[in-house]
Each structure stands twice: as structure tokens, then as C-alpha cells.
Amino acid sequence: MANILLVEDEEVLRMLVVDVLEDEDHCIDEAIDGDEAIDLLQKNEYDLVLLDYMMPGKTGLEVVQHIRKMNRNQDVKIMMLSAKSQQADKERVLNAGANYFMAKPYSPIDLVKRVEEIVGE
């Protein structure tokens, strides 16, 4: 079981991801934007952050950069979830400090497989 922070502003997608990951016995905290994510990261320890690229307020890139400068959770694994799937976008995400990238739309089964691979490392 892993402690996972899901940062996603789309409620339906957030509910779907929570459901499939809780079915795998993971503990999920949810944030609807970057500010809420940073607040949760300052209070809790996570094994993985699933982070939407495009959100209101802080973008996923800004959140990644903030996480990597934090004292707490700075080494947490981060997977960016993005509808921006060009190679340049993927490189930008990884250069910002994310560990993994998954293009939207994705199947819940594929997401679960990736999460299991990551938290099992």
C-alpha cells in the first residue's frame, strides 16, 4: 500500500482515479489545485504524487519545481498526467523534476499498472 497524492482539478477524473487506486489498497489524498497540493505536501509524507499539468492557479510544472525545493517530500516520486503529449512537453516536465509522464487520456488499468511499477521500485 502506498500513500499517494492526486492533484487533479477535474472532479470526474479525480473520482475515477481515486476509485481504481483505492481498489488496489492505496491511500489517496486529493487536491484540486497546486496550492492545495503544496499545503498537503507540507503536512504529509507521500510515496507518489500524481499531478495534472494544466490546472487553475499554479501549473503542474510550478508545483513540481516547488516540491523539489521543499525540505519535506522533495524526493517524492512525481508522475505528471497531461493532455499535452508532444515530446517537447514531456521533456519540459521531466526537466522540471518530474520522474514520470503519462499522456491523457489514459485507461484506468494502464494508470494502475504504472502506479504499481513506480511504488514497487
From TrEMBL:
The lineage of its organism: Bacteria, Bacillati, Bacillota, Bacilli, Bacillales. The keyword Phosphoprotein applies. Residues 3-119 form the Response regulatory domain. Gene3D superfamilies: 3.40.50.2300. The modification 4-aspartylphosphate is found at D52. This is Histidine kinase. It comes from Priestia koreensis. Keywords: Kinase, Phosphoprotein, Transferase. Pfam families: Response_reg. One of its GO terms (molecular function) is kinase activity. One of its GO terms (biological process) is phosphorelay signal transduction system. The keyword Transferase applies.
